[in-house]
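# step 3/5: fold
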Amino acid sequence: MEKIKLGIIGVGNMGTCHIETILEGKTPEIEIAAAADRRESRREWARSALGADVPVFEEGESLIESGLCNAVLVAVPHYQHPELSISALRHGLHVLCEKPAGVYTRQVREMNSAAEASDRVFAIMFNQRTNPAYRKIHEMVQGGALGKLKRVNWIVTDWYRTQSYYDSGSWRATWKGEGGGVLLNQCPHNLDLLQWICGLPCKVQAFCHEGKWHDIEVEDDVTAYLEFPEGATGVFVTSTGDAPGTNRLELTLEYGKLVYEEDRLTLHRLAENERDFCKTAKGGFDKPQYTVETVDIYGEYPQHAGVMNAFAACILHGTPLVAQGTEGIRGLTLSNAMHLSSWLGRAVALPFDEDLFLSELEKRCASSQEKQARDVVFDTKGTY
């Protein structure tokens, strides 16, 4: 069997997880040909896990230039995602990039241009798109059978993190090292799903609370109001400080309401279009009739292995990816707009001023504090 020779750039929390997934045999068309990490402790771990026949480099660029791989998985701090992806694409390598695509959209736009100029496969690690529930919701909303979207509410506060988590890396939870907090670290998945299901909003008003629940300089608590081009509105709430947290996605459409919570998808199906009922009902307090049904959700939830297998299959057989790498800019557009709105204290229209965003980000990076790393790698299984 032909296999993709994959280089893993970054052997931190997620890079370690990806290596273990491949070594466990969950990606039959992928073999690890090389790895890279700037920390000696992680290079030692990689040498032990991968064996003497797999070279381990200090720099991602050295791995890219080695000629040992025909594809790379980029799993390093966020600012480096675009630069390493661009370099790999220009060296003729296929690229699978961890989320987020980058820290700011102007940088990611350069990465997308490099991908479009290349004939290589470019994918992004949006593993939650492999969840059959979200795939079903996407199908039901985008398919049009429930009519137009009227409202979306998503409370996703089950991203609980301890202070120890934030103290585990010198780059983590700093403007200069990570570029943001919960919006850029945990919520790229949710923001991608939000735009994938509902489309991008045209206006955002957000309130990002920095260091509210943890000793960090970036946001760990966010409430955002959204407006969409065809009149729908939304609220997005997230935090890493709520225990126990909540994950409830509620979408109201012309023909009913979808609710996804605790692995159950429920449809409140109206007997007729609410807009028609509103205009023709004779009583002032009449309400449209509806039924409540549990929506059957079929299929496996392969998570990261599913994204990697689709990446390999796209290279080898031309089959579809879970998510094109160029789509990463869409969720990042949403998080950038939320940050900018909070920094400016006003609503922001999309598309927003990318130069203004970068200027505001650079102000925060200039005062970003250096911190000591504890060089800890956590087991991420069950956290996504």
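# step 4/5: annotate
Residues 71 and 287 are 56 Å apart (CA to CA).
# step 5/5: archive (pending)
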